[in-house]
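Justification of computing resources. Each target in the renewal requires a structure prediction run like the one illustrated here; the chain below, 225 residues long, is used simply to show the kind of job we budget for.
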Amino acid sequence: MSGSQLWHQVDDHFTALLSPDDEALTAALRDSEAAGLPPIAVTPALGKFLHLLAQVQGARNILEIGTLGGYSTICMARALPADGRLISLEYSPRHAEVATGNIARAGLDELVEIRVGPALESLPRLADEHPPPPPFDLVFIDADKVNNPHYLEWALKLTRAGSLIVLDNVVRGGRVIDRDSTDPDVVGTRAALELIAGHPRLSGTAIQTVGAKGYDGFALARVLE
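Resulting structure tokens:
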């Protein structure tokens, strides 16, 4: 058995035991595939991890950058209280349309708002709202990787001491350590990790993962002040 086959089998075992998809999550993946969305949603294990993070945080306000079909949105929104709020920013109108249906089917449309357009345009508008939005307790960044450092900087502006920021897909198949890479995704990811490492308001780490999505990983940072 190859290493990747074993990764998949262990991931399948953990998923079936600890984070099985329910009807709403299964339908979200099915409808996303039928609509032609790329198969890059978070795994069930990471979805459950995000759900638990939101619960541990006691999150009332969550910001997501990159909605796709709404799978991760559903996982996090399910941890919110009845008066909680999740704002998800999505570049593609088509992706947002699919996600809106998936979120409504999950019964979470009263808690979730999807804003369509480039996130680097939506974020300043969000910050300038009157009244301003309350600080976000949890931020999940899973969009175009070239802009990761910019998303991280905005996350800092929109959070408070104690907030958590999760940055997905940071390993890039191991290419994250290639200082000479000109791949925009690698360059953006490296810059975001360096920002976490050097910023006085952040304490973070990065974790490598293997499983259904191959060799991957995420960074987790806590806002200090």
